Amino acid sequence: MTTSESRDEAVGSGDVDFDHHSLTFRDHPHEALAELRSRGPVLHSSAHDGFWVLTDYASVFEAAKDDARFSSAESVGIPASGMPFPILPIESDPPQTQQLRAITMTPFSPGTVKSLQPDMREIATELIDAFIERGECDLVQELTTPLPARLMLRMLGFDESTWRSWVERVHLVIHDRAHDLDAAMTAAGSLLTELGTEMERRREAAPTSDLYARIVHGSVDGVPLDDVQITMYGFLMMLGGMDTTSGLTSNSLLQLCVQPNLRQRLIDDRSLLPAATEEFLRHDTPTLGLARTVTEDATMAGQSLKAGERALLMWAGANRDPAVFENPDEIDFDRENKRHLAFGVGKHRCLGSNLAREMFKVMIDEILTRLPDFRLAGEPVRFSDAGEVHALRHLPVIFTPGPRRK
User: Fold this and answer.
1) Which of 59, 17, 56 is nearest to 38 (CA)?
2) Taking burial as the number of CB atoms within 10 A of a residue's CB, which of 71, 247, 254, 401 is the most buried?
3) Is residue 405 part of a domain?
4) Residue 139 CA to its chain's centroid (Å)
5) Are 406 and 383 in contact (CB under 8 A)?
6) pLDDT tens sequence across 34-88
7) What's 172's domain CATH number?
8) Domain tally for the chain?
9) Is 344 buried (19+), middle (13-18) or exposed (0-12) by CB count in 10 A?
10) Between vectors from CA 314 to CA 335 and to CA 114, what angle results, nearest 5°?
11) Which residues lie closer than 8 Å to 107 by C-beta, 6 or more apart?
12) Of 208, 250, 226, 210, nearest in space to 376 by CA
């Protein structure tokens, strides 16, 4: 990036009519991003008080790695989250970002996540047992949503039987914020209140080793986190742990329904699952993009960005950039280039990436094992807004009934 001269010239040549919270974008996000990318990698939209949209791999990668010029501290959403305090650690900048992430790094490490696989299998077995004899189910409502939610509550040390209440509020915050801010903020307030109650429980009870206890007793530079920091950190655990993995899994299951040859390959050769996981992450990225705030005047891809302006880094656009991925709209389990940006890149790379991958593989493996001939039984239903997470609300399927395991 270089110092900018004039913003007006760039905006005049780069204005686009683009709203990532629209129904049109929800229904055709990849087509929309491809069309934008064909007009230029960095363009300006007047929606939501104006923002830049970055759609190619090179621009998204550059911005994501440059925390000094593309700050996460204000809000990673467009429009801004509406929360009175930063959602930590995602809405922070280095070095605070690394210091905050260090508090929960161990629970999300590859080794710890691997040790959680029996828990994932146990929950998956229980959930599938509940519908396997029926020969029909809603895979989102009955598996891909409850499993990540229950596991996250278990990790946090919360009552996992209350998963539905947590999920309903998380969905309001993520999927309704741009269209019904009051409902989203009411749900957010309820979440924060309950997180505050759990915080006090941790302080009054004997020490525990759960994830939330780590946050409650966490510190930065020897200074304990305050109440606001603790509850906002817990808030992020809920947002990240209860929606995106279900979004990835449901998007991918839909692909296996409409492309049965892919499903058969995985049934025949389960060793393909790790490579398939990376390809589904690239092709069906649930978090389509996150925002940054420009901190100084600069030029990027010929466009003049001004300090204080907002930029939306479209991970999904980068992941289907034909300059980087050959035949990007195709799902290719044998693809050699696996350097997708589904989890972001740099200091803000998704803290829960290991956990998401493992849960995804377990759910896909269990489905292919226990209901291998699953097929669509009706129209899949998406959430009305894909601006934050592109995900299915319902995925009705039918299959040959099978026996319970327990």
Assistant:
1) 56
2) 247
3) no
4) 19
5) no
6) 999 999 999 999 999 999 999 999 999 999 999 999 999 989 999 999 899 999 9
7) 1.10.630.10
8) 1
9) buried
10) 55
11) 155, 211, 214
12) 250
